[in-house]
C-alpha cells in the first residue's frame, strides 16, 4: 500500500485524544501503528486466481451479517463492491468466532465503511471532525469496527490481495473478541504491544482456518497465506519505538511471530500472550559493532557500496555455515536453478535498506548449504540473529568462537535496529514466496543458531 508520505497515524483517533486521556481507556485499537508504515515496493507475492471472495453481487448487508448495524461507504445507497467483499469476510469472521467460542455476541455498534475525507460523519469512535485514512479501528466504547473504504480497502486488495484484506479485518475482529474475553487488555496500564500481538495472533488463527477451507466466502490459493501476512510486515513499527510506547504494534518480526503463533497453535494461544513479549520484542534489537571498536555500524555500512555489502554478506554466511557445521562441499544438484531462490533483486534490496542486500546474499548461501527455500529462509534468520549482539553472545557461550571477538561476524557488517525486519521484508517480496519460508525465517531468528539452525535442515 502507498500511504501519503509524512502522514502520522493516530491510534487514539483524531479528536478523541482528550477523551482517551480522561477515560483511562484505550478507545480504539487500530490495525496500523501510530507511525508512518515501512512499506517495501511492489506487490506482495504473486497473483493467484484461486484467491477470491465469493459473494453474490446482489447480496445486501442484511443477507451477509443479519442483525448487525451497517453503514455503507455511501450511506443509504446500495453496497459498493468493496463493501460487499468486506462484509462477506466479516460474515466469515462471525462464523469462525462462533465456532471457536460456542456463541458470539456480534459487535453491538456494528460495522462502518467511511470514505477518506468524510468529515463530520460522527461514525462510531470517529468524531465529527475526524477523518480516517489508510486505517481500520475497533472502537472499544462503541463496540464496532470502522474502516477507510476508499483508500485502505482498495490498496490492501491491490497490494496484498483479498488475503491481506482479510488479515487486516481479522485483526480488528480479534480486538472485538478480546474485549469480550480479555477486557483487561483495554486498561491503560496494559502495554499496547501485548494488546496488538493478541489481535495479530487472532488474525493468523482465522487465516489458517480459511486456508483449511473453513470459510464460506473467502477462498485462498497456494500463496495466499504468505500474502495475508504481508500487511503486518509492511505496517510494523519503525526502529526507535519503545516497547512501552502507547502506540507500539511491534517490529515486523514481532508482528509476524504473533500472527504465526495463531496460525500454528490456534486462538487459545493468542490470549496467553502477555508480559513475556516485552522482553522478547525485537524492537530496537541490534546495534552491534562494525569495523573498529567505536565505529557506528550504520555509518560504516552506509559507506560501503551494495556490491561490497553483498560480498561481505556472502563471506559472513560462509563463515557462519562453517561454525554451525554446515560447511564443506555443496551438492550441485541442490542448487539447480529451478529450486534456487530468485536472483537477489539488488534494486529492491537497496530500497529496503543497507542490510537487505547482505540478506539476499546470505539466503543464497543458505540455499546452497541446505537445499530448500524454507531451509534457506531459516538459515537467513539464524544468521541474522548471529549478526546481532545476542547472536554473538550465543555463539560465544557455546565456545564456537575464537580470538578476541569469539563468534563475531568476521565481515563486521554490524547491526542496527530494524535489520531483522529488513531481511524479513526482503523475503516477503520474493516471487512465489510461501508461508513456510516466512515462518522459517522467524524460527531461525527466534531460536538463534541452536536449536534454530538444526530446525532449518
Ligand atoms: Zn490493533
Mind sketching the topology for me?
Layout lengths: L16 H7 L4 E3 L21 E2 L7 H4 L5 E2 L9 H21 L8 E5 L21 E4 L4 E5 L3 H30 L10 H20 L6 E2 L4 H11 L17 H14 L1 H4 L5 H5 L16 H6 L3 H18 L22 H7 L3 H15 L2 H15 L1 H9 L21 H10 L6 H13 L4 H4 L2
The protein binds zinc ion.
Zinc ion binds next to strand 1, helix 4 and helix 5.
Organism: Nakamurella leprariae
Protein name: Peptidase
Give a short synopsis of this structure.
The protein has 18 helices and 7 strands.
Bound small-molecule species: zinc ion
- The radius of gyration computed from the alpha-carbon positions, rounded to a whole number of angstroms, is 22 Å
The number of helices is 18
Give the N-to-C terminal Cα separation: 35 Å
Q: What is the arithmetic mean of pLDDT?
A: 81
Task: Decide which structural class fits the backbone.
Answer: mainly alpha
What's the β-strand tally?
7
> How many domains, in number, for the residues?
2
Portion of residues within helices = 40-55%
> What is the succession of H and E elements?
HEEHEHEEEHHEHHHHHHHHHHHHH
Shape descriptor reads elongated
Q: Strands across the major sheet, in which order?
A: 1-5-6-4-3
Percentage of residues in strands: 5-15%
* Parts with pLDDT < 50 across at least 5 consecutive residues: 1-26, 35-42, 390-406
Largest sheet: 5 strands, mixed
